[in-house]
Specification:
Its EC number is 6.3.2.4. This is D-alanine--D-alanine ligase. Belongs to the D-alanine--D-alanine ligase family. The protein folds into three domains: about 10-95, Rossmann fold (3-Layer(aba) Sandwich), CATH 3.40.50.20; about 100-120 and about 185-300, 2-Layer Sandwich (D-amino Acid Aminotransferase, Chain A, domain 1), CATH 3.30.470; about 120-180, ATP-grasp fold, A domain (Dna Ligase, domain 1, 2-Layer Sandwich). The chain is built from eleven helices and 13 strands. The chain is of the alpha+beta class and about 325 residues long. The strands form three sheets. Strands 8, 9, 10, 11, 12 and 13 form a six-stranded antiparallel β-sheet that branches.
Length: about 325
């Protein structure tokens, strides 16, 4: 596995966490864990809660680079990346455009479909959408979710036609943009991608087995009954097919640094379907990228250090110190 390069100094490092999104609680846990891991490797790391502190203060802190441990809006969607570009502070993860696209599930699907990549059929829902046409196109059950949220927030599995209105109402509390998506029965998998020596590489797949087959917010972060299998148990040929599909989806959106692609392997024919791409994945005790990294021989601490070393800008003229 990848050996972490020794660097003379990474300078003063800010770990951006917390934020103002609906995923703040998870980000607080991620950020604290990342900061402690970096400190254990001798990095001069400091927590910076963008939900409490004015992000404009980042420049006053004179951070030489930052680790983005923010999830959701204002941290994962290109907003923070754009501010850091203006301040010329190198940051981890994808750049402005790729972050914004990956956060938008509808735009992500449009690009994947344009590239010939498999993703479940969908409809952009409106308050006055014809439920009959939606059902005719997608069938039942179907999934309704906000277009710009993560962690399955606001998601509903609609099993009957009369549930669609309530599902839309819930999703629209989180976002003005809502999509209905074809439900595909099959195995839930996730593929972590990490750039090593400048080249994106897929890590071992993780199979997710949630209670009642419901991988919701609670089961994702707070329920120890959710099971994660890594190795995932698939044959080598099928796993490689899924990993290559995930890698293509990552490259199609122009991502960099790292990411995590969620996939469904359809039970009827073992065909993979791309669900979404997380450009700033969780780094908690329940998170999946660290789990896949461990399987590949990379400790949590070295994963954090590798990500930090990859911090960069869309526009590479760094600020003058």
């Amino acid at each position: 596995m990848h050996k972490v390069k020794k660097m003379d100094s990474l300078g003063k490092v800010g770990v951006l966490y917390g934020g103002k999104s609906a995923e703040r609680e998870v980000s607080l846990v991620s950020g604290k864990a990342v900061c402690e891991a970096l400190k254990s490797r001798g990095v001069d790391a400091h927590l910076f809660d963008t939900g409490i502190n004015d992000p404009a203060r980042l420049q006053d802190e004179r951070f030489d680079r930052v680790f983005i441990a923010l999830h959701g809006r204002y941290g994962e969607d290109g907003c923070m990346q754009g501010m850091l570009e203006q301040m010329q502070i190198p940051y981890t993860g994808s750049g402005v455009l790729a972050s914004a696209i990956a956060m938008d599930k509808i735009m992500t699907k449009r690009l994947w479909l344009a590239e010939g990549l498999p993703t479940p059929r969908y409809v952009e829902l409106k308050a006055d959408s014809d439920s009959g046409k939606v059902m005719a196109h997608l069938g039942l059950p179907l999934i309704v979710k906000p277009a710009h949220e993560g962690s399955t927030l606001g998601l509903t599995r609609v099993k009957q036609a009369d549930q669609l209105a309530d599902a839309y109402a819930l999703a629209s509390k989180y976002d003005r943009s809502v999509l209905a998506e074809e439900f595909i029965k099959g195995m839930e998998l996730t593929c972590a991608i990490l750039e090593l020596d400048g080249k994106p590489q897929t890590l071992p797949l993780i199979r997710i087995i949630a209670p009642d087959a419901n991988y919701d917010y609670h089961n994702k972060y707070f329920n120890d009954k959710t099971r994660y299998l890594c190795p995932c148990g698939l044959d080598a040929e099928t796993e490689e097919k899924i990993r290559q599909c995930a890698l293509k989806s990552y490259q199609a959106l122009g991502c960099r640094g790292w990411g995590r692609v969620d996939v469904i392997l359809r039970a009827s024919d073992n065909e993979p379907f791309l669900l979404e791409l997380n450009s700033s994945p969780g780094m908690t005790g329940h998170s999946l990228v660290p789990m896949a990294a461990r399987q590949a021989g990379l400790s949590y601490e070295d994963l954090c250090l590798t990500l930090l070393q990859s911090a960069t800008l869309d526009h590479l003229k760094h600020r003058e110190k």
